[in-house]
């Protein structure tokens, strides 16, 4: 019986249903509260644009909700784990299950199964929904909540160099010679790296060679402190469309199955890809964090409720869960600047806390 993790179909369905309802409830509460706080901080910027109103606020909320769901679903699973297990413990249901011959792993098995299904659903949701909403929202933020861009292949906050000179664009869309930029700034520098001229423009297009800056041009000469307003200027004649195509990859806005080929293109171009590789692996390990939460919170399920230690056990379970998220973010940060190999940065927190959770469960309950 000890090797049969689901000895009772009725008990499995009961625990899975109990756990699922609490996950949904905690997720709803977290997303609702955080969305309201986010809207309070952003509504002023959105409504400051002429023509924006309630419709744009609803659009912003619709784009933010998938991001909030993706980010806080593992936290919801952790909180739901603690609430479910503490309730079962207080009602002596855990004692009844152990008296019937179930091991600690068998008690947790329905919760782990549910959390595993949540992890798979999270991965699909992230790659099908969250990536699209993230790309759209970043493009909208890049144009300061003006008309929502409809172009494909959008990149935001692009930084390019042409020798000593620098070209920046808040928004880049399209590919090849059809590339269009918005909110562009050109910095001309001398060989010592000092800026001698700055040109701001609303947009830029490929002029073959170079990039023609147009719309709202303002040119400032640093040496003479003189400002003028030319009609159009061609800059960056050494910048080719192919360089801009490879200027930036946004792993948050690109699905898992296309991000790998984009990273390979970066590698062929001789670009550094350790941060991108770490985030590519994290697209798998990140959703799997939900699977860990029942194991890390399992300490709250056992021990006598009347012993006075149930609260302490719940706190320990919560501390283990939140410690995982801290270590996970720290490992990704280390991977970003090459402190960890990409695979280790993405997977080491998951494997470490999987071993910690199993160790705690086996030594205390098995």
TrEMBL record:
InterPro entries: LptG, LptG/LptF_permease. It is a multi-pass membrane protein. Its main location: membrane. Signal peptide: none annotated. The chain crosses the membrane at residues 12-37, 72-88, 108-125, 284-304, 310-327, 339-362. It is found in: Cell membrane. The keyword Transmembrane helix applies. It holds the Pfam family LptF_LptG. This is LPS export ABC transporter permease LptG. The keyword Oxidoreductase does not apply. Keywords: Cell membrane, Membrane, Transmembrane, Transmembrane helix.
């Amino acid at each position: 019986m000890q090797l049969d993790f689901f000895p009772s179909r009725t008990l499995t369905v009961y625990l899975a249903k109990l756990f699922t309802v609490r996950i949904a409830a905690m997720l709803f509460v977290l997303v609702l509260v955080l969305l309201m706080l986010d809207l309070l901080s952003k509504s002023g910027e959105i409504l400051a644009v002429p023509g924006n109103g309630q419709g744009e606020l609803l659009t912003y909320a619709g784009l933010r909700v998938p991001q909030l769901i993706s980010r806080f679903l593992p936290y919801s699973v952790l909180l739901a784990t603690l609430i479910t297990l503490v309730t079962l413990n207080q009602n002596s249901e855990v004692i009844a299950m152990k008296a019937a011959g179930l091991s600690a792993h068998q008690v947790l098995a329905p919760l782990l199964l549910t959390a595993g299904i949540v992890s798979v659903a999270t991965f699909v949701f992230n790659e099908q929904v969250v990536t699209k909403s993230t790309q759209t929202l970043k493009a909208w933020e890049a144009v300061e909540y003006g008309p929502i861009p409809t172009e494909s292949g959008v990149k935001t906050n692009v930084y390019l160099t042409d020798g000593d000179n620098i070209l920046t664009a808040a928004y880049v869309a399209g590919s090849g010679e059809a590339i269009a930029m918005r909110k562009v700034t050109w910095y001309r520098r001398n060989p010592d790296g000092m800026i001698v001229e700055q040109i701001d423009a609303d947009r830029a297009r490929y002029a073959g060679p170079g990039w023609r800056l147009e719309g709202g041009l303002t040119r400032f000469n640093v040496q003479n402190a003189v400002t003028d307003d030319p009609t159009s200027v061609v800059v960056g004649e050494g910048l080719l469309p192919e360089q801009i195509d490879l200027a930036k990859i946004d792993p948050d806005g690109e699905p898992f199955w296309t991000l790998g080929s984009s990273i390979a293109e970066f590698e062929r171009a001789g670009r550094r890809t350790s941060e991108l590789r770490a985030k590519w692996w994290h697209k798998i390990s990140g959703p799997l964090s939900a699977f860990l939460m029942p194991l890390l919170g399992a300490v709250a399920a056992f021990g006598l409720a009347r012993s006075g230690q149930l609260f302490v056990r719940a706190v320990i379970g919560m501390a283990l869960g939140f410690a995982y998220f801290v270590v996970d973010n720290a490992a990704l940060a280390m991977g970003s600047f090459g402190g960890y190999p990409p695979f280790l940065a993405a997977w080491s927190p998951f494997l470490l806390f999987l071993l910690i959770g199993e160790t705690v469960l086996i030594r205390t309950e098995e």
